[in-house]
Design a protein that fits this description.
alpha/beta; TIM Barrel; Glutaredoxin; 2 domains; 4-stranded mixed sheet; about 15% strand
Length: about 450
């Protein structure tokens, strides 16, 4: 049985011989050939080269072609900041000062869509018979936030009609791009929407249910499977996400997989996840990664389950760690025996914490995966940065990325378990929820 057959068997809700393995290798595959993220995402030849090499080395059963949530936003007028080791980030929001809903729907010839479609067709021809291929679109809520900026969170209170119209438009865009990807041969269409974790179940039902039901129905009508990707602690929204009828939910490490699978099983949905990106795959070694993969697979059965990272892999994840997981998945018992005597070394990282009681200013710490790669983290950082215009030199804003080992220790000292989180003068204030300007202003004001 090929890896593709294994993945599709999981999507048909059949018990599989082993857990399918789908590494969300975004720009990380550039490391295989020494290309930067920008080179990779602007050159079809380089992208195909790296995708084929990743397929050879990582032994995936399924594989995303491109993991970039800014493709649609760029076409619709958002400016991008490019980086060496991460996908681009949105640096401007064309609707930040207006509520005029756009009418433009991306064509096959717009922006980087031709590059993506060319890559998909070529990769389909090279590895598509043995590997299930994922085409990823920017989810409606995240795309709407790219266009409107953090104002969209205030709009949900001030102008419900505008939000509904903007989300409907964003859904039209996602449906059209998904249509192109299905025509290019993608087996699974993923709607990647990190910001879903930032809203309540009631807000999801109010604003997201209809757009997402329409999106997933459209994918199904075109003969492809679908997956709903979410970042952050979206535990509260898992049931609402199931109700909009995707075939799969892809979750990150902030969510308890065993408890989440109880929910997805009630709705007969596949669940995909949720290896720790930073602590295990980025900062651990090959044995750590293999052990984590086996422990995760041991927690759930092989029906309605796909083993995957919690999100797209950071660029610097060691190649051997991903290779090792592929080996462990395909030879679980021999790998288990190999790891019997292995014990992970205790971390001896020391971290100097600020003397919060003696500060002569307000210190806002934004604890993130990385604001350059995580959309929710980016908008959390932007919310904090907005405070500079209000309070000026009375405040200091520091981002603490868990891609830096000392910040993992810092999280433990602060008692933070979920990201992104805002801490004000050592007090945890906003956990996996992006505050609006007035909410954060009020919290900062208490310390002045």
């Amino acid at each position: 049985m090929t890896g593709k057959e294994l993945v599709l068997k999981a999507f048909r809700h059949e018990k599989t011989e082993r857990a399918p393995w789908v590494p969300y290798t975004g720009v990380q595959i550039g490391q295989l050939k020494g290309y930067s993220a920008e080179e990779l995402l602007k050159d079809s030849d380089k992208l195909v080269e790296c995708l084929v090499e990743a397929n050879r080395q990582y032994s995936p059963d399924g594989q995303p072609v491109v993991f970039d949530l800014q493709i649609e936003a760029e076409i619709l007028g958002c400016n991008l900041l490019w980086a060496e080791k991460s996908p681009p980030t949105v640096s401007s929001h064309p609707l930040s000062e207006t509520r005029d809903i756009p009418t433009k729907i991306p064509s096959r010839d717009d922006g980087r869509i031709p590059l993506v479609l060319d890559t998909m067709k070529r990769v389909k021809n090279k590895i598509g018979k043995k590997t299930a291929l994922y085409g990823l679109v920017c989810g409606p809520f995240t795309l709407a936030s790219h266009l409107r900026g953090t104002n969209i969170f205030l709009d949900m209170y001030d102008d419900e009609d505008f939000v509904h119209k903007l989300l409907s438009y964003s859904t039209d865009v996602a449906i059209k791009v998904a249509e192109y990807y299905i025509e290019a041969g993608m087996d699974i269409i993923g709607a990647v929407d990190p910001l879903i974790s930032q809203i309540s179940p009631d807000t999801f039902a109010q604003y997201m249910a209809a757009p997402y039901k329409r999106f997933f129905d459209s994918v199904r009508e075109r003969g492809a499977f679908s997956s709903f990707f979410v970042c952050g602690d979206a535990t509260k929204n898992l049931e609402e996400m199931c109700k909009v009828d995707p075939d799969c939910l892809s979750i990150d490490e902030n969510i308890n997989l065993v408890q989440a699978k109880k929910i997805t099983d009630r709705y007969n949905k596949v669940i995909s996840g949720n290896l720790q990106l930073t602590v295990v795959m980025l900062l651990g070694n090959q044995k750590d990664s293999q052990k984590a993969a086996i422990e995760l697979m041991d927690k759930v059965d092989n029906t309605n389950f796909i083993l995957a990272p919690g999100c797209d892999l950071p660029y610097d994840v060691p190649i051997e760690n991903i290779v090792g997981i592929g080996q462990a998945v395909q030879s679980i018992e021999s790998t288990r025996k190999f790891l019997e005597s292995y014990v992970k070394e205790d971390s001896d990282i020391q971290v100097d914490m600020p003397d919060y009681d003696s500060l002569d200013h307000v210190l806002i710490e934004v604890l993130t995966i990385d604001s350059a790669t995580c959309a929710a983290c980016g908008y959390m950082k932007s919310a904090a940065d907005d405070m500079t215009a209000i309070f000026g030199e009375k405040i200091e804003i520091v981002e603490r990325k868990i891609t830096e080992p000392e910040n993992i220790a810092r999280l433990g000292k602060l008692g933070v378990a979920n990201l992104p989180t805002i801490v004000v003068n050592g007090q945890v204030k906003f956990i996996s929820i992006i505050p609006n300007r007035d909410e954060l202003k009020e919290e900062v004001g208490k310390f002045l």
